[in-house]
Amino acid sequence: MKKIMLTGDRPTGKLHVGHYVGSLRRRVELQNTGDFDDIFIMIADAQALTDNADNPEKVRQNIIEVALDYLACGLDPEKSTLLIQSQIPELCELSFYYMNLVTVSRLQRNPTVKTEIKMRNFEASIPVGFFTYPISQAADITAFKATIVPVGEDQMPMLEQTKEIVHKFNSVYGETLVEPQILLPDNEACMRLPGIDGKAKMSKSLGNCIYLSEEPEEIKKKVFSMFTDPTHIRIEDPGKLEGNTVFTYLDAFCRPEYFPEFLPEYNNLDELKEHYKRGGLGDMKVKRFLNNVLQAELEPIRKRRKEWQKDIPAVYEILRKGSEKAEKVAAETLKDVKAAMKINYFDDEELIKMQSAKYMEE
Ligand code: TRP
Q1: For the chain, what percent of residues have pLDDT higher than 70?
Q2: Domain 4-193+312-352, architecture per CATH
Q3: Does the beta carbon of 66 lie inside 6 Å of ligand 1?
């Protein structure tokens, strides 16, 4: 079986380091293994419109920001197809047929959608398009016959919904759709990178993000303002690692080679953590180290972004070409789907013959 990766992001803002450790970094690593037959990375503008219908300009403005962040991280248009969701009309058609395979109560149980409804104060008036976006996401995934979908854990319910649609479709209409597998980040810190304030998740509305395109001075300011252990007052006090944002970030970003480079008194992160727990290690020292680590990680990304920023038309051209290629693939799947559902009347010679025979005797 072919190995096909697909994933995507809603273009509602620039991407931040939470996106990076949660999925972007993994995508680039997977891309560079050369193990995949095809890779599709989707800018999910149509999905972004399901809860931004009154603000399409926000979505429109952010498509290029997400594309730049992708290229900056090392997604390579020679190896990965970058596409814009709304440019693939086949996805709407697939969604329309999948809708018949999903119940309202099943959608109501989706925990991610439930949380989002609360966050957006949609309780009294949920847009139908927003309510059904898990179905449209199943179309995104199945249209490209994706086998691997690297995403954050909040996307787990979407993958479950997709698998249910695949099973239902295949059992009703015959084996047609491919079941995808979710690929989650491999450590807890990457799974749920908190904001710099230590609050649950990094999010633009909470103002607690470090963006991938952030300038060095800003990164430094944010690192030094990070939430640590509020009971660790004097350097000699023992410190706690749980809920200590600085250490969570080190778990997500630190590489062994950063110790000889920036903090040669320690051999590895475990030693640093032990010292902190014991007492005698100040927050400032750990923050300085984290700042060095983040600067080293983000500098090449920022530089690459600046290069691409000089040629925005070229970035749009990459998206146009990618969307064109993606549409061809989605059209093939739609053809298979319609054939399986036998709604391909004009290609169905049997049907035409049969209907003719019915009226032959008259
Ligand atoms: N729901 C995803 C998000 O909010 C974006 C998305 C849309 C997606 N279609 C997808 C992710 C298909 C993976 C696969 O970030």
Answers
A1: 99
A2: 3-Layer(aba) Sandwich (3.40)
A3: no
Cβ–Cβ under 8 Å, residues 15 and 159: no
d(CA 11, CA 204): 12
312-342 pLDDT tens trace: 999 999 999 999 999 999 999 999 999 999 9
Expressed in angstroms and rounded, the spacing between residue 39 Cα and the centre of ligand 1 is 14
Q: Which ligand 1 atom is nearest residue 47's CA?
A: 7
47 lines ligand 1 (CB under 6 A): yes
Helix, strand and coil content of the chain, in percent to the nearest 5, comes to 60, 5, 35
Q: Give yes or no for a contact between 159 and 136, defined as CB atoms under 8 angstroms apart.
A: no
- Domain ranges in the chain are 4-193+312-352, 216-307
Question: What CATH architecture applies to the domain 216-307?
Answer: Orthogonal Bundle (1.10)
| Minimal-distance CA residue to ligand 1 atom 15 | 9
Given a cut of 90, is residue 49 above it in pLDDT?
A: yes
Residue range 206-248, pLDDT digits in tens: 889 999 999 999 999 999 999 999 999 899 999 999 999 999 9
Residue nearest to atom 14 of ligand 1 (CA): 7
